[in-house]
Every structure is written in C-alpha cells, then in structure tokens.
Amino acid sequence: MLEGKAVIGETDMLKTMQQDALDLAAKALDFFDVTEATEIACFIKKEFDRTYGPGWQCIVGTDFGSFVTHRSGNFIHFQIGSLAILLFRGSAGPDPEASQFTGLEALDKLTV
C-alpha cells in the first residue's frame, strides 16, 4: 500500500464515480505492490468496465504524458503519493456515417 491521500488533478466525473475510482485505486494498492503498475491499471479498468460498461482505459505510473479523447463525464487523473492514475472512457470520435464524405472521397477532398 502506498501511503498518502489521493489528490485529484483533473476530472469531469460525477463525485460518486470519482469516489469509486479512488476506492478502487486504494483496493488495488492493497492487492499489488506499487511497482506493479500494469496489474493496478488492469484491476481498475476491469472493475470500471464491469460497473460502468465497456470502453474504459487506465494508465498507471510515476512518469508519463498523455493526450486522450474521452467521453464527457468519464475522465479522472489523480495521484496517490508518487503514483499517477489516469482513468477514462474512450471516445471513437465523430460517427463516420454522419460525415458527408466517406472513404477515398474524403481523402480526395483533403488533397484538393
């Protein structure tokens, strides 16, 4: 278990979902050593998939950068001691069927 209080950096989650993320991180740190970042991330991701539906991504480590697209209301970045945790539900972007151009037509329009 890593000692220290969780400090939320950025989030757009509801408070109850934020608390679930913090609770799961604490539980994961009870099960795994702080050096087992992949196992911690897997544990949190699988629990969020089970509770809130599929599509969650989790990144855990002491030093990483990120730039992600996420669904609104489904993002949290927090720190417990030196361990940072990024949890978000991915977004595939705009619906391709909604676009007026598809496939090579869209590529042709970009090159004109």
TrEMBL record:
InterPro entries: DLC_sf (IPR037177), Dynein_light_chain_typ-1/2 (IPR001372). GO terms for biological process: microtubule-based process. GO terms for molecular function: dynein intermediate chain binding. The keyword Disulfide bond does not apply. Keywords: Cytoplasm, Cytoskeleton, Dynein, Microtubule, Motor protein. The keyword Cytoplasm applies. Pfam families: Dynein_light. GO terms for cellular component: cytoplasmic dynein complex; microtubule. Signal peptide: none annotated. SUPFAM superfamilies: DLC. It is found in: Cytoplasm, Cytoskeleton. CDD domains: DLC-like_DYNLL1_DYNLL2. Belongs to the dynein light chain family. PANTHER family: DYNEIN LIGHT CHAIN (PTHR11886). This is Dynein light chain.
